[in-house]
Prior knowledge:
Elements: H1 5-14, H2 47-64, E1 68-69, H3 75-87, H4 93-101, H5 106-118, H6 121-136, H7 147-159, H8 164-173, E2 176-177, H9 185-188, H10 194-206, H11 225-232, E3 238-243, E4 252-257, H12 294-302, H13 310-323, H14 329-341, H15 346-354, E5 369-370, E6 375-376, H16 379-390, H17 410-424, H18 432-443, H19 461-469, H20 471-476, H21 484-491, H22 495-507, H23 513-525, H24 529-541, H25 544-547, E7 548-549
Parallel strand pairs: 1-5
Antiparallel strand pairs: 2-4, 3-4, 6-7
Helix pairs in contact: 1-23, 1-24, 2-14, 3-5, 5-15, 6-7, 8-12, 10-11, 13-14, 13-15, 17-18, 22-23, 23-24
Amino acid sequence: MRFSRRALALVAAAGIGALPGAAAAPAKKAGAAAAGAPRPAAKAPDAARTVAAVDAAVRADWTARGLRPGPAATDLEILRRLTLDLAGRIPTLAEIEAFQAAAPPLAAKRAAAAARLAASADFAEHRAWTLVDHYGANAVSARGVDEDALHDFVAGALRAGRGYDAVVRDLIGAEGSTHTDGAANFLAMADGNPTAMAVEVADRLLGLSMGCAQCHDHVDGTWKKEEFWAFTSFFARASYVPDIRDGKGPPDWHLIELPYGEVRMGMALPGSGPIFPPRYPDGTAGPAAPDARRRDALAAWVTAPANPWFAKERVKQVAALMLGAPLPAAAVDALAAYYVDSGFAEPALARAVAATEAYALSSRPAAGLATAPVRPLTLRVIVRSIALATGAPVDGGAGAAAGAGARYGKGARKKAAATVTKAAAGDDAPDLMGALDAMARAGGRRAGGTGIDPASTDPSLVRALFLMNGRLVDAATMPFPGSALSALLDSGRDAASAIDPVVLSVLGRPPTAAERTALVAHVEHAPSPRAGWSDVLWALFNASGFLYVL
């Protein structure tokens, strides 16, 4: 690598972006949700009342744990947090300047920024990837699975204003090719195994840990084997088959629904176990008609407003993403009711969580005070933010399919990886997202693969080496054509006048006095302005203040 030990020491010496420090399941038989019940029109949800109820529940929890609310985050910390959580990227300089210029109070500025971001195309793209990553965490196999197609389906549904209930109904009842019918990829991750499909739906959509009951009753009596296998019967007729086509290239995999078929408990030997008719986890019977489309019936039951688990589980997932900590049960109940009333609108749920007192707390630790947890960013968000800060293509570059966001074919991924090499020599703008996609697929990132995982937040040695010594960050810090660094070098600005906007564009805040002194001195004493500014960018991209949500 070209980076000197002086550059490596920049983060520690200047203390750039130093981390501030970090500071029950529903009852099983909670009530039935009628599968065929008519779906009421979404009510006009009361956001202010919901947020007040959440804040009251969280404060009660703090009091019970002997905590008082800590200080609020700064304006710029709030903007950066909102933009990362809702748009999957850092804020631009223009967004920062507009936020600072907006009239107080901060609560109104925060609400306006959240509304703008939740209505943006970035929200749908980012939220879709968080859902794909959530679904893929339990993937049995990657055979035939097209995660890009699944992302495109979910993102398209969110852009069209569809509720999450409608999205999930399509995921559970999907049929078709995994490449052309994106929703089919959700159950395709189970590789045609009905028990794996049952586990995926129960765990990823309802938050129910039923998997162990396929072999034995739960020790605490929560789930019995008979209940698991009755739930698995909903997927008995789902089949995952390849279409060999002309015998050239990999097969096109299809998820189909057969008109017949049952599963037997255990499946140790054909016909060795009993057959259980489909039954929902709340104890109510599923469709009994021989020709019933069982998955469609299950989809209606799962997403019914009265379902005791679905809305609450989605609230818990979003709270984990945006707050980094679980909410007390009363807060989950309030947000779940609001979510249902909104028509399961993902933007509405995100805005409600962003309006809570807990979301606006500072992450700086203090004894006896509740603070916001420090949350690591995924590699996908990190690389996209690096692209945005440097002027590299953000949403797919030249290699992406038109109109499909950052979606790549095999040849396009190879082309994207080549742009990184050219950028390191200053000859091309690097397609960082395409190169990341190529690296992820090279070793396979699901089901035991060894590739780089764009969804990873694990602070591992592999991740550190990827960011410190990898070709992507190296290329991003070069003055490639059209880059922010090229414009800075061409402007002839001295380091003292340029350092503040550079740091602000990467970390979302101005540098401290110590950071400014160290960074300016490094540029002024570097062999060339190009080398000095490249080192500064590298140091900022590896700073904890960039790699974490503070």
